Amino acid sequence: MKVMIIGSEGMLGHDLVDVLSLEHDISTTTIWTLDITDINKTIETVRNINPDVVVHAAAFTDVDGSESKADLAYQVNAIGTRNVAVACRETDSALVYICTDYVFDGTKGSPYYEYDQTNPLSVYGKTKHLGEVYIRDLLDKFYIVRTSWLYGFHGPNFITTMLKLAETHDKISVVGDQIGSPTYTLDLAKAIAQLIEKPAYGIYHVTNSDHCSWYEYAQLIFEIAGKKVELDPVTTEEFGSPAPRPQYSVLENYNWKMEGFDKIRSYKEALKDYMSLL
Ligand SMILES: NC(=O)c1ccc[n+]([C@@H]2O[C@H](COP(=O)([O-])OP(=O)(O)OC[C@H]3O[C@@H](n4cnc5c(N)ncnc54)[C@H](OP(=O)(O)O)[C@@H]3O)[C@@H](O)[C@H]2O)c1
Fold this sequence. Notes:
The chain is of the alpha/beta class and 278 residues long. It has 11 helices and 12 strands. It starts with a strand and ends with a helix.
């Protein structure tokens, strides 16, 4: 198939290029070649490529920064996604949109299903959710892929941050009361490659399986790294990030499994693989 990847220089975008180019004819755009906030340019670019599938992995991903730069987050995540959807409608391309666990408020206390009520808390979550709404209003052929706590080789992430902090700090404070599923971008890219083979359009939760708090995640990182570091579990309130985050945002990969795809491996196994290559 002809597959267009928007946001190919991002953390996930890089892995999407590596994985999807194995089976497909790939075209890529970056912020330098296509700013998705420009509707005319977006339509023109997608029309010129005329892809079977567009994978839209571009976003304003600074969760805390979105609180003070709400206009920019809205322009990119909501309007930019609308523009991509309009372009896909013109070329009759299927669209894969990468969304987030932050569309939920985290109060459910058990894993979120695809059909659970959304209620984003942060500006970032709200703008990403609006992207979903535009796609559902404008397109028939779409895969909305909600994922969480991404890490990969091509971007700063929690693991590299922890390892760097350990070089200069004897003690590191880590949030202990937010629970989620760390997800390896390479595993997510492989899942998207499987998904686009099937016209089973709709919303999917796609994450590595099992879950932890950020504190437990940090413990595992240092265990695998063989480093002794004193970790201090703090509450979300004590940590004091600008953007509110859901306390419990584990995503049940229900539709994924229902479509017959294999359960995605545990975050623990994926993390070991990733760290063995650092
Ligand atoms: N990271 C996570 O933990 C996480 C969790 C759940 C869902 N997601 C979603 O997964 C997707 C991929 O995330 P990621 O972590 O790979 O993000 P990332 O590394 O920040 O990549 C996003 C890319 O989009 C580009 N971009 C920003 N504004 C743009 C615009 N107006 N037009 C075109 N491109 C633009 C960025 O360019 P610049 O870098 O030059 O700005 C960057 O290359 C996003 O949709 C994100 O919302 C991420």
